[in-house]
């Protein structure tokens, strides 16, 4: 009784210490401290803010918005300033057939028609008056912005799936670490009891050796589980976009997840909740706008322009700067009409190409609808089957635990062998593995179902 009490107190102490470490899973090989602990939503929030792929998509959305600004800018007034000053170092001569008209000797004469210095300055304003393709271009640019947002949303769904699966893998390993600790403690207790019985001549040496082999195997497996946990944590960091050097501390447990099928999950199902479907719809809208844009090229384009300037020409450089007396103003306004009447049937072929692209997208929508229905049905069936398997494995684990207790009672009572205890412990450990494998598979299936329903990420 004293030994049993002492063993119980020691086990309680180490169990509390281990639980304190497991409840907040620290980082592996990191030299920085975690600022806060993360539950699943915290991991997703961090991933959406720091994952490199998400950032790239955010930049792409910004690029698309900038392109909208570029489109809008082409319809706003354009003002340009042009000014120059020229020093004709050697003025080119023009030959006249007879110089007498200019008071020169008879015969060909070389004369100049330029001044030594010349200058000009002008301001020109252009404004689009009518261009139907411009209006469609602006609409297309805005639609493209929405398209990039849809692509970003699709990326978030994929990242949420990977982060969620990695997160629950860490929690599963957390439970396995705790169970490996308990199994090690039980086998260590069995080894100690067997050594005492062997010393009193009640069991053979081979029983001690069997117990020691079982304990060593359990310690090796516990070490592997800890190493697997290290890799799983690193995988979770990678999916979140967290640097390897940073510490990651998680909170939460498997009991918080709801695995049961809820009927309201399938009520009022809207396939538009799937980012892939919304993406196809946006692509179809883009092609429809493109068709309208091609048709708009048949319309004329009208623009207005105005020009105000002044110029001068002087033989003395100092006279160039006499703006009031030596510079002569000019101004003009006008309207420009551009109408492309014949383009070799290029627009006709472009319209046909766009029409076929729209038909292709409609077929893609049909395929996607069928795929979504199949994904939902498959995930639902898999989850139902997984929950049934989980209940069976839970029952098996409880039975295996009860067998361990009975085998120990028989062993201590002298009616059983330590081999029976070791076999019972091995069966219990196997039942634990089956249970947590079934639990993890059920969790993965639930995540797949939420993704199929478009409910994995709440926007």
Polypeptide structure, described:
It is a single chain. By secondary structure, the protein is α+β, with helices and mostly antiparallel strands. The chain folds into two domains: 354 residues, Outer membrane efflux proteins (OEP) (Up-down Bundle); 75 residues. The protein is 63% helix and 12% strand. The protein has nine helices and six strands. α5 packs parallel to α9. It starts with a helix and ends in a 7-residue tail after the last helix. The N terminus is likely disordered.
Uncertain regions spanning at least 5 consecutive residues? 1-34
Number of alpha- plus pi-helical segments: 9
Order of strands across the main sheet = 1-4-5-6
Distance between the termini: 60 Å
Mean pLDDT: 81
CATH class category label of the largest domain:
Mainly Alpha
How helix-rich are the residues, as a percent range?
55-70%
Task: Please give the number of β-strands.
Answer: 6
The CATH topology of the largest domain is given as Outer membrane efflux proteins (OEP)
The CATH superfamily of the largest domain is known as Outer membrane efflux proteins (OEP)
Largest sheet: 4 strands, antiparallel
Order of helices and strands: HHHEEEEHHHEHEHH
User: Which architecture of the largest domain does the CATH hierarchy give at level 2?
Assistant: Up-down Bundle
How much of the residues is beta strand, in percent?
5-15%
Counting helices, strands and paired strands, the structural category is: alpha+beta
Radius of gyration: 41 Å
Shape: elongated
Compute the number of structural domains: 2
């Amino acid at each position: 009784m004293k030994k049993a009490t002492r063993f119980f107190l020691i086990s309680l102490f180490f169990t509390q210490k281990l639980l304190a470490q497991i409840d907040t899973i620290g980082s592996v090989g990191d030299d920085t401290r975690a600022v806060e602990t993360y539950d699943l939503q915290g991991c997703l929030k961090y991933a959406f803010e720091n994952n490199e792929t998400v950032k790239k998509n955010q930049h792409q959305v910004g690029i698309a918005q900038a392109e909208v600004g570029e489109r809008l800018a082409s319809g706003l007034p354009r003002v340009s300033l042009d000014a120059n000053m020229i020093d004709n170092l050697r003025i080119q001569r023009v030959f006249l057939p007879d110089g007498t008209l200019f008071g020169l000797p008879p015969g060909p004469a070389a004369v100049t028609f330029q001044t030594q210095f010349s200058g000009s300055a002008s301001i020109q304003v252009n404004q689009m008056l009518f261009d139907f393709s411009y209006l469609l271009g602006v609409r297309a640019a805005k639609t493209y912005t929405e398209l990039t947002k849809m692509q970003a949303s699709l990326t978030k769904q994929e990242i949420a799936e990977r982060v969620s699966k990695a997160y629950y893998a860490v929690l599963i390993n957390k439970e396995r670490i705790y169970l490996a600790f308990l199994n090690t403690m039980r086998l260590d207790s069995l080894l100690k009891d067997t050594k005492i019985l062997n010393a009193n001549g009640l069991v053979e040496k081979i029983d001690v050796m069997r117990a020691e082999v079982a304990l060593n195997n359990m310690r090796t497996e516990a070490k592997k589980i800890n190493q697997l946990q290290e890799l799983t944590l690193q995988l979770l960091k990678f999916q979140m976009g967290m640097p390897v050097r940073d510490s990651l501390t998680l909170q939460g447990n498997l009991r918080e997840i709801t695995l049961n099928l809820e009927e309201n999950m399938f009520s009022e199902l809207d396939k538009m909740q799937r980012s892939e479907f919304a993406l196809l719809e946006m692509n179809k809208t883009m092609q429809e706008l493109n068709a309208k844009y091609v048709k708009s090229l048949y319309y004329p384009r009208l623009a207005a322009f105005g020009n105000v300037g002044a110029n001068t020409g002087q033989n003395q450089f100092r006279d160039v700067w006499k703006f009031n007396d030596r510079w002569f103003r000019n101004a003009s306004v006008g309207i420009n009409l551009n109408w492309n009447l014949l383009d070799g049937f290029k627009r006709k072929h472009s319209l046909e190409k766009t029409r076929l692209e729209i038909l292709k997208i409609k077929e893609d929508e049909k395929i996607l609808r069928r795929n979504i229905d199949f994904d939902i049905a498959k995930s639902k069936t898999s989850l139902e089957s997984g929950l049934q398997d989980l209940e069976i494995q839970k029952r098996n684990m409880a039975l295996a635990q009860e067998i361990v207790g009975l085998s120990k009672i028989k062993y201590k009572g002298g009616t059983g062998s330590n081999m029976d205890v070791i076999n019972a412990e091995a069966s219990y450990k196997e039942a634990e593995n089956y249970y947590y494998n079934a639990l993890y598979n059920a969790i993965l299936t639930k995540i797949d179902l939420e993704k199929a329903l478009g409910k994995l990420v709440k926007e």
